[in-house]
Design a protein that fits this description.
single chain; alpha+beta; 2 domains; 15 helices; globular; disordered N terminus
Length: 407
C-alpha cells in the first residue's frame, strides 16, 4: 500500500534519489520550462501544451510513442480507464526491459503495488503520491528518465570533477560523425552551402548543423557554449577548468561546422577540410567538431571564464608554447547572458525536424541575412522555421565576422 508522504519527507527522498541517479541529477536545479523546451524541440509536444495540463490515456499514448521510438503501449498493463502513476510506471518499466523484475515481488498482491515497489528501485518513483490525472510535467520527467535508460538521450556527461569525465569526453568526440549528420538532414547542409555561396558581402561566414536531442537541460542564464574541434583541446580544457577551481557541469555536443577560413591570417588549412575556394585568401572548410557546453554554479564564474580562455587557450601569436593544445586565434564562445568584455551578435537558427542550422551574424546585417535565408527555404521542400536570439560572444570572434565583410 502506497503511503502518503509529507512534502518535507518527499523532498528529502527526492534529493537522495537525484544524487544517486545521473539521469535525474539536475532536475531540482532548473526551471520546469527547460524540460518543456527540450520536448518541444524534439517534436514530442507543441508550444500549445502547458505543463499543468492533465494527461489522460490518449495524450499519454501520444507522448509515449513519440518519446520512445519503437515502443507501443502494452494493453495488458492498462488495468484502469483512468491514467495514474502506477500505470505510467508500468508502461515505462516495460519499455526499459524491467517487467519481469516486477513480478519478483511475491509478497505484494496487486499489480499496482508491484509496479510501485519496482519503480522505487528502478528510479521512476518521482511522484509516488500521484493517483490520477497526472500533470504533463510529471509525465515528461518520467519519460525523460526512460529516454536516458534506453540510451536515446544523455542528459550531460557529468561534473568537471568526475573521475570519468575525460573518458566520456573522448568517447563523445570520437563518435561525432559527419556522414551520419549528412544522411539525417542533408537539406540543412544544402541550405548552408547556398547561404555561404550566395549571401553577398561576407555577412554569412559559416554554419553549424546540430541535433536538439543532444542539448543538455542546463540553466540558460548560467550556460556557456565554446566551439572547437581538437581532441587535445577538449581534454585539456577540462583540466584547465579543474585547476582553476570552476564548479561546472560539463557536456560535449557533436556538430558539423563549415566556415570561412582566412588563409592570410591563420595559415593553410588541412587540405581534406577544404570544401570550396572563395578567393586567394579565403576558403570554405568543414569538419566534424563539437561544442563544449558548460553550466556554471554562479554568474561570477560565468564571467570569469573569459579570463581563463584569454590567458591559456587563445592564440595570440605564432608561438603557442604555454597554451593548451590547438588554440584558435579567433575562438568563439558565448552566452545569452550579457557579460563584461563580450559583444552582441544575433544567433540565427533554421530548424528542420529536430535538427537545426546555427550561425552568428553581426547585428547590423542580421535582417539582410534572415531575408536571404527566408528566400532560400521558400524554394526548398519540407518544413523549415527561422528564429533569432541575442547572444554575447568574445570580441575576437566579432572581429572575425567584421574581417569577413567585403565591399
Amino acid at each position: 500500500m502506497l503511503k502518503k508522504l509529507s512534502m518535507s519527507l518527499l523532498a528529502v527522498i527526492l534529493a537522495v534519489f537525484l544524487l544517486a541517479s545521473v539521469s535525474l541529477q539536475a532536475y531540482d536545479q532548473f526551471e520546469s520550462q527547460a524540460l518543456a523546451t527540450y520536448f518541444t524541440r524534439i517534436g514530442v509536444i507543441t508550444e500549445a501544451h502547458h505543463l499543468d495540463t492533465a494527461v489522460d490515456w490518449d495524450l499519454f499514448e501520444t507522448l509515449f510513442v513519440s518519446s520512445l521510438p519503437g515502443h507501443q503501449i502494452a494493453e495488458d498493463l492498462t488495468w484502469d480507464d483512468a491514467l495514474d502513476y502506477p500505470q505510467i510506471a508500468a508502461q515505462l518499466i516495460k519499455a526499459v526491459n524491467q517487467e519481469e523484475f516486477v513480478y519478483t515481488y511475491h509478497d505484494l498482491d496487486s499489480k499496482s503495488d508491484q509496479f510501485i515497489a519496482a519503480a522505487e528501485i528502478i528510479g521512476f518513483d518521482l511522484y509516488p503520491d500521484v493517483t490520477a490525472d497526472p500533470e504533463l510535467e510529471i509525465v515528461l520527467r518520467m519519460l525523460l528518465k526512460a529516454r536516458v535508460d534506453t540510451n536515446i538521450y544523455t542528459p550531460y556527461l557529468g561534473h568537471i570533477s568526475d573521475q570519468d569525465i575525460y573518458r566520456l569526453s573522448r568517447i563523445k568526440r570520437e563518435t561525432i560523425s559527419q556522414p551520419e549528420f549528412v544522411e539525417a538532414v542533408s537539406e540543412l547542409f544544402e541550405l548552408g552551402v547556398k547561404a555561404i555561396s550566395n549571401i553577398p558581402g561576407g555577412t554569412f561566414t559559416g554554419y553549424n548543423i546540430k541535433n536538439y536531442n543532444e542539448n543538455p537541460i542546463f540553466n540558460p542564464e548560467l550556460k556557456m557554449r565554446y566551439d572547437h574541434g581538437s581532441m587535445g583541446h577538449l581534454l585539456q580544457m577540462a583540466s584547465l577548468l579543474r585547476r582553476e577551481d570552476f564548479d561546472v557541469r560539463w557536456d560535449v555536443k557533436g556538430r558539423i561546422s563549415s566556415y570561412v577560413h582566412h588563409v592570410d591570417q591563420w595559415g593553410e588549412p588541412d587540405p581534406d577540410s577544404v570544401l570550396a575556394e572563395i578567393d586567394e585568401t579565403r576558403v570554405v572548410v568543414g569538419s566534424a567538431s563539437y561544442d563544449i557546453l558548460l553550466e556554471f554554479a554562479s554568474h561570477d564564474e560565468l564571467a570569469e571564464f573569459k579570463t581563463m580562455i584569454d590567458e591559456f587557450a587563445r592564440r595570440k601569436e605564432e608561438d603557442t608554447f604555454g597554451l593548451i593544445a590547438s588554440p584558435y586565434y579567433a575562438p568563439v564562445f558565448g552566452s545569452i547572458t550579457e557579460l563584461p568584455g563580450y559583444e552582441e551578435v544575433i544567433g540565427l537558427r533554421v530548424n528542420h525536424g529536430h535538427y537545426y542550422l546555427q550561425s552568428y551574424v553581426l547585428v547590423d546585417y542580421a535582417d539582410q541575412v534572415i531575408a536571404e535565408m527566408e528566400g532560400f527555404i521558400a524554394e526548398m521542400p519540407g518544413e523549415f522555421t527561422i528564429e533569432t536570439a541575442t547572444y554575447y560572444v568574445n570580441p575576437e570572434f566579432v572581429n572575425y565576422l567584421i574581417n569577413n565583410l567585403t565591399d
